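Lecture 7 notes: from sequence to structure.
We start with the chain below.
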Amino acid sequence: MLMLFSLGPQEERPRELKGGGHSLGESAEHFFSEGAAGELLRTCEAGAWKAVKQLARAANPGSKPNPKEICSAAAFIKKQASKGARQEYAGGDDKAMRTDIFTLDGGYLVKIDMVFSVSVMDVEGYHPKHYAELFEGLREAYGEPTKSSSETVTDVYGIKYDAHRAEWVGKQDVITIVEQPGGNGRTEIVVETLAERERATKAPKTANPLEQTNP
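Predicted structure tokens for the same chain:
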């Protein structure tokens, strides 16, 4: 599975939330020893520059990676995150048309932001996931969302779409799924601690000129 969310058998147990191969709340040391991040750093330590390029292109085929710069950047992020500094680490899965941003703060993973792009064309070898499929997976795991909503949005060509949003609020964390429909549509799933959500709500908002607008 590209993404796994699981809930312990007893309701009183904290739920384990996973995305992009990592668990919310895991330590920075564990984060950089497992999954794609761990594989990259081990490849860097071995000095296998060709393999580093291949790993970078697997996540971003259009890039022209400099392996030494990639390794230096990854080592820096690991060092700072392990000290407790707030850092972001990018990942993803090109074939699933998914990009990931992991946020580490205080030595732990506090947020996983996954964006699933939707192609208007069927491309062999690529397997995009749509909002309905992702939403059903979350609902199957957690039941009905704590709250959900939809609104009509209009793209730059004047075409109207119904955009959906839902969230599951736990005692220590929250899962949010947001749909951005249209020709260049996408679905974003954010898994974060409640402290991280509160931090985001207090941060000043910046306008995004690319966002769709209500009619």
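Points to note: The chain has six helices and ten strands. The first helix runs from residue 28 to 31.
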